[in-house]
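=== RUN LOG ===
request id: a7f3
mode: sequence -> structure
chains: 1
length: 413
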Amino acid sequence: MIKPGNLLFLQEEIRIMRIISTNRNSYIFLALILLILFLPQCAEEESAIPPGIGWTGTDPTSIPIRQRLLQAERGNLVRNPSFELGRIVNVDSNTVSHNITGWKEMGENISWLFHSPDFVDIGNQVRSGSRAIKINRNPGTEVSNQGDGIVSDFIRVIPGNYEFSFWIRLEDIKPGSEFRGRRLDRAIDIRLLYYDKNRLLISGNTYDNSGNATLDQSIKSLMFSDFWQIDSFGWTPVKGRTTNDFLTEGDIPDEAKFVKLYLGLTGTGTMWIDDVDFRYTQRNFTSLERSKRMFDTSWSKLDLVIPTPQQARQLDPLQYHVRGTDRVPPPVIVIPANPGRSFASTAGSSVASACVISRSISSTALIFSSDFSTLGKMALARAENSLAVRRSNLAWSSLSLIRMDWTEDQKAS
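=== RESULT ===
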C-alpha cells in the first residue's frame, strides 16, 4: 500500500488526475461535436418555417413560387395517414393503451384496429392496409359536451388553399343528448384546428360575403348536415368542408402557421376512419404557373435550342411546300447538316445556321430562315407542336426534312 506523502503516491495521484482531466476533455470535445452536428439541423428546421411577412392566401402570388412549389410537392401533409405506424403501450384486464404515430387519442371509446388474414379477419373494418380507427359510443358511455376522437400532430402550413379528405364508415349514428333533434354535422365532429407561430390556438372565423354572416372554418362536417341519423354508411371518401363555396372553401387564416386535424364522434353509434389526406391544392397557382414548362429550370442552353425527340425519321422525297397551297405535313422541321454555314434549299430559300425550336408558349415550332417570306413564314403558320432535333443524335444528309414522334410527356411539355 502506498502511503500519503510517498513519492510513488504523488505520482499515482498525478496520473489519476491526468486521466480524469483527459476524460473530461474527451467529454467536452464529444459534446462540442454533437453540438456542431445538431445545430445546423435545428437551424435548418427553424429556417424551414416560412417568415410569411406580407403573405396572404387571397393573393397566392404574394408567396414566393419556390415556397408554394415545395409545399405542393410534399403531397399529403398528414403523418401516418392510414394509422399503420404505432405500438400498444399497455394491456391489462380492463384497458388497452395505444401510441399511434402522428396521432393522439381523445377519449376512451377508441379502438386501433388490426387486420391480418393470418390472425383475426375483421372484414371491412379496415379500408386499406392493416390498420384503422374505430370509435364506438353508446348512450351508456355518452357524456354531455364531450366526444371521442383522434387529433393529429402539428402540421406546418403556409397561407393558401388546402384540401382535407378521409375515408369513413358509419353505423347507427344518432345525435347525442346535447344535439338531440339536430342534424348530424355536430354528432360527427370533423374539425381543422388553426395555430399561430407560437402554436397557440386561433379562431377559424371568417366573414362570408355571400351569406352576410360569420363562418367557422374550423368545422368541416358539412357532408353530414343533411342527415338526421344514419343506419349504415359503407366505406366512402369524404371531403372535410365548411361550405360549398368553391371560391373560399379550403382557405386557411393567414395567421395560421400550423394546423391539427380532428376526427371524432359526439353522438352515438360507430365510426371508422382511415386514409386521411390534407394537402396544398393547385388553386394556389395561376394558370400560367400550373404549366410545367414554367418550372423546368434544368435546361442547358443546348436543350433550350435543340431538344431531343423520342424518334426521328427522314421523309422522302423532300418537300417543304406545295405551290399554290398552304399544306405542310406537321410536325416538321428543317435541319442543316452543317449548322455553322448557311446554304440554299431546293425551295429557293436560304436556311440559317439556327434551325430551331420550340418550347414557346404556343407550342409552335419556329424555323429560323434568312428568308421569312417563304420557308420561315410557312413554318410559323403550319409546323405546330414541333421541336428541333438534337444534331448529335443523328447523322444528317446535307439537308433533311424530319418528322418527329413524341412521347405523351413530351407532347404535354
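=== NOTES ===
Residues 292-412 form one domain.
The chain is about 15% helix and 30% strand.
=== END ===
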